[in-house]
Structure formats: structure tokens, C-alpha cells
Amino acid sequence: MRYIKLKIQNQQLEWLVQFCLKFEMNAKGSRQRSKFIKILQDKVEDYRNHRQELIELYASKDENGNPLIILDNGERCYDVEDKNGYMKEFIELQLEYNYINQTEENIKMLKIVGDAYLNHEDMFLGIEGDFYHYICIEFEEFFEKQGKEISSK
User: InterPro entries, from UniProt (predicted)?
Assistant: First the structure.
């Protein structure tokens, strides 16, 4: 059986976790949301590990072999020698997709969380608006691939 997948970019994962927590849901919805957040948190952890690997690869090291932290315009940051190489890799990592498969175990979760997103009535601006728009499109496409009716208002 071929599974339908919901795709989410790395750069959207942490926002999506926080955004999910804003939804008011009944007990059943809350349980499904918790499952969704757990999946996302695991993916956030993987993303953070990959980001740390990039820092380890590109940052200058102190005498103990740890990434060197410097002050740049009053902000603490890693001392990266090859900034262009690092940024190229970092952007690629940010834009990389994560997938959540529709399985017997999580189909109810995806339906409930997807409906909550598609029926959310608040307005969003800036990057939050962009992320919200993107995830709604992903859920719409996910439901269309399932052949299910989308229950958006």
C-alpha cells in the first residue's frame, strides 16, 4: 500500500509546534494534537542535531575543540570561517522536507489536526502568515489525495 504523506519544511517545525498549542480542542482532539506535536518534536530534535553538525563542521574551534563563540555587533554567534559555505548548507537544511505518513495509526490524528488548521479563523501576518498559508495548502493537498472532502469554512 502506498502511503500519502504530509510534508513540512524544517524551518516550519518549531513554529508549527507552538501554533498547534494555540488550538482549543475537546479531549479527543487534544489527544490527537499531542500525538502530532510529539511527531513534530522528534523531527525538531533531528533538525537541531543536523544544525549542530553544520556548526561543528563550519565553526572555528577553541583550544578544547569546541565551536568558538564571538561577539558580532553585540550579539553572540559562532565564529564561522566559510560563511558562504555554511549559509548554503544552512539554507538547504532549512528548506528540507520532513514527511508524516498517513498510516492506520495516525490517520485520525492528521484529520483532526488538519481540520483544526483549515477551520482556524484568526488572521496572520508576515512569516507566521506565510507558514500558516503553507501548512493549510499541505493539509488541503493531503486531504485531496485521500479523496476526502475538505471541511473548511
Answer: DUF1617
Please check whether residue 71 lies inside any domain of the structure.
no
Report if pTM > 0.85: no
Q: By residue range, what is the domain housing residue 127?
A: 5-54+99-146
- How many other β-carbons are positioned within 10 Å of the β-carbon of residue 137? 10
β-bridge mates for residue 76, sequence order:
71
Q: How far is CA 28 from CA 7, 101, 117, 151, in A?
A: 24, 21, 16, 18
Residue 102 DSSP symbol: -
Domains identified in the chain, total number: 1
Q: Which residues contact 11 (CB under 8 A, 6 or more apart)?
A: 94, 95
Residue range 1-55, pLDDT digits in tens: 455 788 999 999 999 999 888 888 889 889 999 999 999 999 999 999 999 999 9
pLDDT digits (tens, 9 = 90+) for 67-78: 999 998 999 999
Q: Is residue 129 part of a domain?
A: yes
